[in-house]
Write a structure and sequence with these properties.
Elements (H helix, E strand, L loop, with lengths): L8 E5 L3 H7 L4 H22 L3 E8 L7 H24 L3 E5 L7 H14 L6 E8 L1 H17 L10 H5 L12 E4 L18 E3 L10 H13 L9
Parallel strand pairs: 1-2, 1-5, 2-4, 3-4, 5-6
Length: 236
Amino acid sequence: MSLSALPRHVAIIMDGNGRWAKKNAFSVMLGHRKGVEALRDIIRYSSDAGIQVLSLYAFSTENWTRPEAEVKALMGLIVEFFTSEIEELHRNKVKIRILGDVEALPDKARAAVISAMDTTKDNGGLQLNIALNYGARDEILRAVKSLAMKSADQLLQPQDITWADFAQELYTKDQPDVDLLIRTSGEQRLSNFLLCQSAYAELLFPETLWPEFTVSLYKDALATYQRRERRFGGRT
């Protein structure tokens, strides 16, 4: 695999923790914990390989409907992850950005992610986006409202609004669009994740459940991307 032709922006829907737990007769929370272990290796490899942006779907706006005990445990895992990993991430110059409504998170989780963003804000390595309390439709609506307010304040004219203006209102402002989107577990849908940013993304749906998604399989996905011919609506 040539490192020179890697995608600039990789997005991953980390799906299959619950099914992995069921398959192995473990608790759902052990499945989520094993998923965090897989996550560490993928972040490290992305950083070492020189990928510019890695976006991870950790908790959607719809996930609040899960059992209360599971949601509480997931929020605890978020706090645990940032507490245990922030030193290594910062040492490796990883810059953390949270995509989603941070203010609606529980106090400890909100404090942990805000601290992580503040600690790494000046880093120039891998940009690590973690989608927490995130939904693409909410993101789009948020962007539309912001532009509408700017128009009402006469800061811009509606007819002059460009895609670049809209993109600057998204959580991923100043970052490249998604080049490669991977969803593990074999499910083939985007589930309200980075809908605008993935307009021309290459899509891969490996059957592997997320806790079993190794760096070797990640390399295979990146190699598959490199073999794709990207035309962006044009002709060769």
